[in-house]
Design a protein that fits this description.
There is one protein chain. This protein is of the alpha/beta class. The chain contains twelve helices and 16 strands. The strands form three sheets. Strands 1, 2, 3, 4, 5, 11 and 16 form a seven-stranded mixed beta sheet that branches. A five-stranded mixed beta sheet has the order 8-7-9-6-10. Strands 13-14-12-15 form a four-stranded antiparallel beta sheet. Strand 13 and strand 14 form a beta hairpin. It is globular, with a radius of gyration of 25 Å.
């Protein structure tokens, strides 16, 4: 047997081994896709890919062909992602609003392969997951300019779902009207209260009458259906395209850094990971002097960074509040378990509703 024949025989043997290993790898990728669907987690995970690449390349000793091995590993991960995307095509993601709403845009960005299912309000979208109609729901929890979305925080407190990811989506508000309208013909603007607040200076400057709508895309739909030339909607470019409106003016929100944080809720909490570095807690404290201060101190004393502390009335007892806490650090660690144990002694109700690696900017 010649050296060429021996080399080709070796390649055939390796190819046979690689075929079986490829099958095993893709079967594992299927499990990963099913897990991500169940927990409402997007396919692309930049941190995980970087770790896989770094670990494998570090163990590769042949410098002459190392760059080709990098290509090989990268291609394998790309193939795995394409397979996972195909498996997630039957996934249903609920959102509040109609097509073109910012929540619809967020759903398409986080889960590009899933079916985005519209619901008329936050509660019905949330309950679609509780009832098993949809796999997960994406809801806004905070806007960088206009603050918290209280209704969603209440759903998080009173409902059974878990937050398995938070995504920052840039929001650009536009003035949309029917064809034939002009800036001078507009007398009224309609939009969601959050959008009206984000564009308050612009509205006042032009002397428009502000009218509230369920959400921005619904506002665009109402303007389109009215056929009027004296009313405009404040909404996204996608809403304009969907409802046949023209953009009279772009980027009318005061802040050029207008971002909305969307949380993905699912029925099951994701498995704890050593990489988890963000958590969301909900708790109530006993009606005793200093009880809230003691609870907050416990978080810091155990080495965790308190990013946000927000309060909402429980609606069950007058002047009784629950607290929505966002923090940094791994609560699956020994320090985290100690912190939670100490918090339970000070809190009348304590729940972990969010635990994930990092907040993602899209």
């Amino acid at each position: 047997m010649t050296d060429l024949e021996k080399a080709r025989q070796k390649i055939n043997e390796v190819d046979t081994q690689m075929r079986q290993l490829f099958l095993e790898r893709m079967q594992a990728a299927r499990v990963v896709a099913e897990y991500k669907k169940l927990h409402g987690i997007q396919v692309y995970d930049a941190q995980r890919e970087a770790e896989v690449l770094a670990r494998n390349v570090a163990a590769f000793t042949d410098e002459e062909i190392k760059s080709y091995y990098v290509d090989f590993i990268t291609h394998n991960m790309d193939v795995s992602k394409r397979y996972q995307h195909r498996l997630l095509e039957g996934m249903k993601v609920a959102f509040s609003g109609v097509e073109g709403a910012f929540a619809n845009i967020a759903a398409n960005k986080v889960f590009p392969d899933a079916e985005a299912v519209p619901y008329p309000d936050f509660k019905s979208a949330y309950n679609s997951v509780v009832d098993g109609v949809c796999d997960c729901v994406i809801l806004p929890i905070e806007n960088s300019f206009n603050g918290d979305v209280g209704q969603v925080m209440d759903l998080a407190f009173f409902g059974p779902l878990y937050i398995n990811g938070v995504y920052d989506i840039s929001v650009i508000q536009n003035l949309l009207a029917n064809k034939g309208a002009s800036l001078s013909s507009i007398k009224e603007v309609i939009s969601h209260p959050q959008a009206l607040g984000q564009c308050n200076d612009y509205i006042k400057k032009h002397g428009f009458k502000a009218i509230e709508a369920v959400n921005t895309a619904v506002a665009a739909k109402q303007v389109a259906e009215s056929g009027r030339l004296d009313i405009a909607a404040i909404a996204s470019e996608e809403a304009a395209e969907k409802h046949g409106l023209v953009k009279l003016e772009a980027h009318i929100n005061q802040s050029s850094n207008n971002t909305t944080r969307f949380a993905v809720f699912s029925r099951t909490a994701k498995a704890p990971s050593k990489a988890d570095n963000h958590f969301i807690l909900l708790f109530t404290v006993t009606n005793e002097a200093g009880s809230l201060g003691k609870a907050i101190s416990i978080i810091g004393e155990n080495g965790f960074n308190l990013k946000a502390l927000k309060s909402r009335p429980t609606k069950e007892l007058i002047w009784n509040y629950y607290f929505f806490v966002e923090g940094e650090g791994n609560i699956n660690s020994n320090e985290g378990k100690k912190m939670l144990s100490e918090l339970k002694e000070k809190c009348s109700d304590l729940r972990i509703i969010g635990n994930f690696e990092k907040e993602v900017v899209l």
